[in-house]
Design brief:
The chain is 33% helix and 19% strand. The protein is of the alpha+beta class. The chain folds into two domains: 11-197, ph1033 like fold, CATH 3.10.590; 214-342, Trna Endonuclease, Chain: A, domain 1 (3-Layer(aba) Sandwich). Strands 1, 2, 3, 4, 5, 6 and 7 form a seven-stranded mixed beta sheet that branches. It has a five-stranded mixed beta sheet with strand order 8-9-10-11-12, with helices on both faces. Helix 3 (59-69) packs across helix 4.
């Protein structure tokens, strides 16, 4: 996927250093802080009980604050949390790259750290430890990122450095639209996964990868039609090349006459869709007798579209790769055998790991 060029505020830094460290900073186990982070040009972490780290000028100083804040926690937990908070406060430098994996959308935001650690008492209590960021791209689809990099970005830690397999230079190439480095991936012990991996995120990435491989192009439209059938819709696919912005029409009831009657546009490319595509679907709803529209974009949506999601709620629903995977898994048992043969999955139970 081609991304736009780096902002001018980022490019000069590349001239000063051949390696720009890349850090991952999550925004809550369920993405509860991600919109605040994007809207306010920040990366934020929780640890609500820990006070301002500004006076803790050493790692031991941070550890003392963590221990005092969580007196009942184990030494291993205190050591783990101290390392992440010290990294967030001190090791991450102005000019470094930061990745924010988004839970609510199948995309990752990338930015450049633009300021030192700051404790923001004006923000909600779970978002007061902050670093300012100049966002470069907030809508890079996970499907546009190589699987080994997604694996590193699946580390369970809230704050960590991403550097396996030349990750930093490869992400820079992705963001600048240049050719990725030809350096081969590291193999052997250094290529082992992080000790703690978000298994759910990793599993979903594998499922997304499989769908992208087995249901590319026209077959992706077939998959969406089968999901809608499994949801109880009567489905008719429109003729290729004459759809007028609609690939599928669907309605309830044995004949499909009952509401909701929906018109569906399906895009299988990894490029985020913009507002013009959504407007095209809105413009043809009446012609197809549809009461609502469903826009399915495997590559997700540009930031301008995501800002309008609430405005579109009663007229058009937007599915990205995350939504497609959720819908497939929710209806998996009702899908045809040929679909299940191309997408074999099973349920796995694992222990939930939590951080403050």
């Amino acid at each position: 996927m081609k991304c736009g060029p780096l902002p001018l505020s980022v490019s000069p830094y590349l001239e000063r250093s051949s390696i720009m460290p890349l850090w991952m900073v999550r925004a809550g186990s369920n993405g509860e802080r991600e919109q605040l982070a994007l809207d306010n040009n920040l990366v934020v972490v929780g640890w609500n009980e820990v006070p301002d780290l500004g006076t803790a000028t050493t790692r031991d100083g941070v550890r003392n604050l963590v221990r005092a804040s969580y007196p009942d926690s184990s030494e291993n937990a205190v050591t783990n949390w101290t390392g992440q908070l010290w990294t967030f406060r001190d090791r991450i430098q102005v000019g470094d790259l930061v990745a924010l994996p988004l839970k609510r959308h199948a995309s990752i935001a990338f930015g450049r750290v633009s300021g030192p650690y700051r404790y923001r008492s004006d923000l909600p209590e779970d978002a007061r430890h902050t670093r300012s960021v100049e966002w470069i791209r907030t809508d890079v689809p996970r499907t546009a990122i190589d699987q080994d990099l997604l694996y590193s970005l699946g580390a369970f830690l809230t704050v960590c450095r991403i550097e396996r397999n030349d990750a930093e230079n490869r992400i820079l190439a992705l963001l600048s639209g240049s050719k990725p480095p030809t350096k081969p991936p590291v193999v052997g012990p250094e290529d082992e996964p992080p000790a703690a991996v978000d298994l759910e995120a990793y599993g979903l990435d594998l499922i997304r990868q499989r769908i992208g491989q087995r249901f590319a192009g026209h077959e992706f439209e077939v998959l969406i039609a089968e999901v809608l059938k499994a949801q109880g819709f009567t489905v008719e696919r429109t003729e290729a090349g004459a759809d007028g912005g609609v690939d599928i029409v669907a309605g309830r009831g044995p004949m499909g006459f009952d509401p909701p009657r929906i018109a569906v546009q399906v895009k299988s490319s990894s490029t985020p869709e913009g507002e013009s595509s959504i407007r095209e679907l809105q413009g043809v709803l009446k012609r197809f007798g549809a009461t609502q529209g469903l826009f399915v974009s495997w590559g997700g949506y540009k930031t301008s579209v995501l800002k309008r999601v609430r405005e579109l709620f009663f007229e058009v629903r937007l599915w990205d790769a995350n939504d497609v995977v959720r819908a497939v898994l929710a209806q998996y048992d009702q899908l045809p055998d040929d679909v299940k043969a191309d997408l074999p999955v099973k349920r796995v139970w694992t222990l939930v790991q939590e951080e403050p």
